[in-house]
Amino acid sequence: MTSRILEDSMTACEPGPGRARVWMVVVAAGAVMGLALGLRHVQGLFLLPVTGTRGWSRELFGLALAVQNLVWGLAQPLAGMVADRHGSGRVVASGVVLYVLGLYGMTRATTAAGFVLAAGVVTGLALAGTAFGVVYAAVSRQLPGERRAWAVGMAGALGGLGQFLLVPATQGLIEGLGWQGALLAGAAAFALMLPLARVLREPRPAAGAQSAPPQALGEALREACGHRGFWLLNLGFLACGFQLAFIANHLPAYLADRGLAPEAAVAALATIALANVAGIYACGVLGGRYRPKYLLAGIYLARSVAIALFVLLPPGPWTLYPFAAVMGLMWLGTVPLTNGVLSGVFGLRYLGTLFGLVFIGHQLGSFLGVWMGGRVFEATGSYALVWLLAIALGVLAAALHWPIDDRPLLRSPRRPPHEPPPRRRRAAGRRGGVRAVVRGLAAPARGLRLAGRLDHGAVRMTPTPLHGVPMRIHYDNEQHAADFIRLNEAWIGEYFRLEEADRALARDPMRIVREGGSILTLSNRGEVIGACALLREEDGMMQLARMAVAAGERGKGWGRILLATALQRARQLGARRVRLLSNTRLGAAIHLYEAVGFRAVHRGPHPGTPAATS
Fold first, then answer.
1. 455 and 557 share a domain?
2. Reading across the β-sheet that carries 9-11, which strands appear in turn?
3. What DSSP letter does each residue of 564-584 carry, written as one string?
4. pLDDT of residue 100
5. Residue 568: CATH number of its domain
6. Alpha helices, H only, 441-598
7. What are the residues facing 580 on neighbouring strands?
8. CB atoms within 10 A of CB 431
9. Are residues 341 and 488 in the same domain?
10. Strand 452-455 relative to strand 9-11: parallel, antiparallel, unpaired?
C-alpha cells in the first residue's frame, strides 16, 4: 500500500512552514520565555540579600514585585494589541530592551521608590512583551492547526527548562558575585535574546491572499466582553496568579522560618521548574486531545489539594520536594490551556489582545499573592492565612472553569470592500476573475442546484437534478463520529495506508470541533453515506479534509453536494479562504475540486503532516 505523501501530488494551498522553520520558531519562543520567566521565577532568591543589604522590609520587596505583576497584567493587552497589529517581533524586541534596563536599574536603586520603579514598573512592562501573551500568539499564528498544540507545548517546555537551569545558576551567581552581580549577568544574558525577536516575526500575508476584510478590533472586543466564558476565564486565572506568585516569591522565606536551610528553597524552586518542563508540554499536548476547560478545572482543584497537604504535614524534605514536584507539573500548564480555550472560541486574529485581557486577572492575583504574603506576615508573623486563601481560590477557580461555553463562535461572513454584488460576483467566478488563493468561497458550486435551509444544525436539501429522494447533511453530530471514522478509514484503505495520525483521530474525532472546525456527515434514508471535515487554521483560513463517500454511493453526486455544503459551512464559521491537500492519483476528486473553483497553487511533496493530507 502506498503512503498518501508522494512526490507526484497536488495541493490547493501555499506550502506551510518547513520543519526547520517550525523548530526555529519553537526554540526562539522557548529561549525568550525561558529567560524572561526564569528571571522572574528566581526573584524570591533575592529577597533576603536585597532587604538585608538595603535595610528594607519584606513588605517593601513584596510591594515592588506586586507592582511588577500588576503592571505586567495591565500592559499585556496593550502589548497584545500592538503585536496583533504590527507583528510580535517588534514587541518582543522592545520587551528585551526594557528587561535589560529593569535589571540594571534594580542594581542601582538605593531608594524604595527607585527599586519599585525598576523592579516593578520597567520589568513589568518588559514581561508584557517577552512572556506568554505575545510569544504564544506568535507561535500560534505561524503554525497550522494540526501542529499548534504541540508547538505551544514544546515552546513552553523549553521555556520551563530555562527556568529550571536559572535556579542553580542564579544561586551560584549570588554566592560568587553578590546579588548585584547576579542581576547584571542576567541583563547581559537577556541582551543576547534580541536577534531572536526577528525569528518570532510573523510572515506577511501574500498579496491578494485576503479575500475579505479582517474583523475589527472593536468588534472582537465587544464579542469577547459579551461572552460569559471570557469573564469566567479571567476570574479563574486570578487564582492561578495568586498561587504561583505567592509560592515563587515567599516560599524561600517560609522555609527559612520553618527551620529549613537556604539550599532547600533552591532545590524546591529547581524541582518546580524541572517538573514544569514536563507539565507544560503535557498540558499543551493534552489540550489538543481533550477539552481544555476540564483540564483547567482539574489543575486548579489538584493544586488546592497539594497546598493543603503541604501546609498540614510537618515541614521537611519528604513533604517539600513532592509538593514542589506536583506543583511544578501544574505550574504554567494553565497558560497553553487558557490560550487554547481563547483560540478555540474567538480564533487567532486577536489572540494576543484577548489573552492579554484575560491575563489581567492572572496578574491581579499575582499582585495580591505577592503583596498579601508580605503584608500578612508583617501583621501576624505567619503565612498561614495566605495559604488558606490560596486553597480556597483554587477550589473556586475549578468551579468557574467547568461551565465555560468553549464552542467556537459563529460569525456572519464579512463582504470585502469593493466586492461586486452577488449576481455579478457569480458571473465573475465563472469567468475566472475572482482573485484569491482558493476560489471555493468566492463562487458557488457550478452545475449544482440546491434548494434548502438551515434547520437545527442540518441543511435540508432536495437535489432533484441528481436524485429524487430527500437527504440531510448534519453538522458536528457526535452520534455520527463513528461513521465519520468508518468512512474515512475505508477510503484510506482503498488507496493508501492508515497512519498514526489517522489512528489518533479515530480515538477522539470530535477534537476537530473543539479546535474550531466542523464535521459534516451526509445521510440518506437515515444511513450515513458521506462525510468530510473542516479544520481551523490561521484566521480566515480553513482546511477541507477527510472527505469520503461510501463505495456503493459514488458517482451519484453526493460528493458534489457534500463539498458545496462544506463551503457554506466554512462561510458560517467565518472563513474567507479554504484550502485542501490532494493527490494526483485521485483524478476524479481533483476534477470535482477544480469544477467548483479551487485552483492548484503548489505541486510536489505535501508541505504538511500526514494528518493533513487526506
1. yes
2. 452-455, 458-461, 471-475, 518-524, 527-536, 541-549, 577-583, 9-11, 602-603
3. HHHHHHHHHTT-SEEEEEEET
4. 93
5. 3.40.630.30
6. 481-495, 500-507, 511-514, 558-572, 587-595
7. 544
8. 8
9. no
10. unpaired
Q: Are 417 and 355 in contact (CB under 8 A)?
A: no
Cα–Cα–Cα angle for 588, 591, 596, rounded to 5 degrees: 130
Q: What integer pLDDT is reported at residue 45 of this predicted model?
A: 82
Same domain? For 453 and 389 the reply is no
Q: How many CB atoms are closer than 10 A to CB 397?
A: 29
Instruction: Output 53-60 pairs: Cβ under 8 A, ≥24 positions apart.
Output: 53/179, 54/110, 54/115, 56/112, 56/115, 57/374, 57/378, 58/253, 58/374, 58/377, 58/378, 59/374, 59/375, 59/377, 59/378, 60/112, 60/115, 60/116, 60/374
Supply the pLDDT for residue 597: 65
Residues 70-106 have pLDDT tens digits of 888 888 888 888 888 888 888 999 999 999 999 999 9
Q: How far is CA 116 from CA 58, 64, 103, in A?
A: 13, 5, 12
Query: Is residue 558 included in any domain, yes or no?
Result: yes
Sign of CA dihedral 565, 568, 573, 574: positive
Judged on CB neighbours under 10 Å (0-12, 13-18, 19+), 464 is exposed
How far CA 332 is from CA of 67, 132, 258, 479, 483, in Å, comes to: 21, 10, 27, 35, 38
Instruction: Give pLDDT tens digits for 453-496.
Output: 223 333 333 333 333 445 788 888 888 888 899 898 888 877 77
The answer to whether residues 376 and 488 belong to one domain is no
- Say which residues have a Cβ less than 8 Å from residue 150's Cβ, sequence separation at least 6: 284, 285, 288
Q: Are residues 513 and 397 part of one domain?
A: no
pLDDT in the model for residue 605: 59
Looking at the fold, whether 281 and 139 belong to one and the same domain comes out as: yes
Single out the residue in 401, 432, 455 at which a domain terminates.
401
- Range with lowest mean pLDDT among 32-46, 352-366, 414-428: 414-428
Out of 401, 431, 447, pick the residue that ends a domain.
401
9-11 and 602-603 as β-strands: parallel, antiparallel, unpaired? antiparallel
pLDDT of 451? 27
Domain with 191, as residue range(s), is 9-202+217-401
Whether 323 is in a domain gets the answer yes
Cell of 595: 469544477
- pLDDT surpasses 60 at 397: yes
Q: Is residue 417 part of a domain?
A: no
**Residue 591: CB partners within 8 Å, gap ≥ 6?**
none
235 and 320 belong to one structural domain: yes
* Percent of the chain predicted with pLDDT > 90: 18
**Overall number of domains in the chain:** 2
131-142: average pLDDT: 81
Is 1 among the domain residues? no
With bands split at pLDDT 50, 70 and 90, how would you rate the model's confidence at 391? very high
Examine the domain organization and report whether 376 and 431 are in the same domain.
no
Tell me how crowded residue 368 is: count the other CB atoms within 10 A of its CB: 22
What is the three-state SS of 362-426? HHHHHHHHHHHHHHHHHHHCCCHHHHHHHHHHHHHHHHHHCCCCCCCCCCCCCCCCCCCCHHHHH
**Backbone phi, psi, residue 556, to 5°:** -105, 5
Least confident of 281-295, 387-401, 409-423: 409-423
In the predicted model, is pLDDT for residue 439 greater than 70? no
Task: Tell me how far apart the alpha carbons of residues 393 and 513 are, in angstroms, rounded to a whole number.
Answer: 31
Taking the C-alpha atoms of residue 35 and residue 160, their distance in angstroms, rounded to an integer, is 9
Which residue has cell 489512528?
A: 503
Tell me the CATH number at 107. 1.20.1250.20
